[in-house]
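Lab notebook, bench 4. Continuing the backlog of folding jobs that were queued last week. Each job is logged with the same field layout so the records can be merged later without manual cleanup. Today's entry covers glucose-6-phosphate 1-epimerase, a 247-residue chain. Filled in by technician R.K.

JOB TYPE: sequence-to-structure
TARGET: glucose-6-phosphate 1-epimerase
LENGTH: 247
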Amino acid sequence: MPYTKDDKKVTLTTAAGSSVEILLYGATVLSWKASRTAEPARERLFVSKKAVLDGSKPVRGGIPIAFPFFGPPSKPEHQKMGQHGFARSTVWKWDSVVMDNDTGVAVRLVLEPTPEIKAVFPNPFHLAYVALLHTYFEADAATCTVSPLKGLTYIDKTKNYAEAVETRDEVPVNKFTDAVYKNGGGKYVGKWTGGGIEVKAVGFKDVVVWNPQAEAGSKIGDLHEGAWDNFVCIEASPTLLSLFAVY
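JOB STATUS: finished
OUTPUT FIELD FOLLOWS
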């Protein structure tokens, strides 16, 4: 069977041995094990050892969805919401199987207005808002670099949101990095000693590169000690996105 589900989680598998586990709480991807020919499937995502998986708070790691904004609430209409909005802290509903063939398997989960959402976000969902897939890739942060970002304008959140133009061919994450790159090419490569990842973003104009290192990571309660050495976030983000768009 290409998928299994219960009231907490959906698991997708392929004939080649790859798999994905999705928590219905937040529609957060907890695990992505990629298989190659003649190689066993291995985990490609990072999840903190201190992550809470019981649906009481958003998961630290994996691929959570930030919506209708990224980061702390900055607009007056968002002040009733917590960090990254409500999508990652609401239970999503199973909808349907979208694809099930030799190419792979895909399913659709939906998030509809609930009384709790309407209490903090009464706006109609057809309006355009910022959304982001906050992907934690398992990586050796000491040697990890991300490219191609050279020539892109970016906002450096580690320097009081200063705006600059990237001059580096490859951007390292071995020190505290939190940068929002505007109008990227939609294809990014993270590489490190012994591995790498290619990210292709369709319909997502911007990209965030993040690793807190000890400077900021030690202040995150559900991130275990030294976790910042083991991941990089390469986060596809549209500037404006209708909720009716298909992710």
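OBSERVATION: The chain has a mean pLDDT of 83.
SIGNED: R.K.
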